[in-house]
Amino acid sequence: MTPPNDIVWNHRLAELLAFQQVNGHLNVPRRSGTLGQWVMTQRRQYKIGLKGERTTQLSEERQNALNSIGFEWVVDKKSLRGWDDRFKDLVAFKEKYGHTNVRQKEGSLGRWVSTQRRHYRFLQEDEQSQLNQARVDRLNQIGFEWSLLKPLKTK
Fold it and tell me: At the top level of its lineage, which domain of life is listed (predicted)?
């Protein structure tokens, strides 16, 4: 028999997935009732576990479940707003030029694109990254090229 705490936790996880389907992200505002409070609690429990201060209610299994859907443990409101704004700038760039390969020397959008590629490599190597699966999916949907390296020509 499943413990009551697991039933509630799994129910909230299902609510979070439904939120993601509607909103395209997992960053539920704190003011969004019980789901917002639950998300905040997961982040708080994660921080407690990192510090090793006391036993956390967030098991490794639960962490893995949240990681598998692209959950962000640390959210900076400025960076979220900034990422979405930059993504919109990249979409506009693609509409104008037909590609997403913004050169670094072309200013802040170019530096942002370079940063996305770098953080994608971090993600691939299981290192800490600002990029999550939801953002990767959004970039993939517009045809973002993760590597500019071209294969060597063979004779």
Answer: Eukaryota
| pLDDT tens figures, 82-126 | 788 889 999 999 999 999 999 877 777 888 898 899 889 888 988
Backbone torsion region of residue 19, taken as left when φ is above 0, otherwise alpha when ψ lies between -120 and 50, otherwise beta? alpha
Report the number of distinct structural domains present in the chain.
2
- Token pair belonging to 140: 């993939």
Please give the radius of gyration of the chain, using alpha carbons only, rounded to the nearest integer: 19
Q: Mark which of 68, 85, 100 sits at the end of a domain.
A: 68
Tens digits of residue pLDDT in 130-153: 788 889 999 999 999 998 766 555
110 CB-near residues (< 8 Å, 6+ apart): 102, 103, 104
**Domain termination residue (choose one: 39, 68, 97):** 68
Query: Domain range spanning residue 53?
Result: 4-68
How many C-beta neighbours within 10 Å does residue 93 have?
Answer: 19
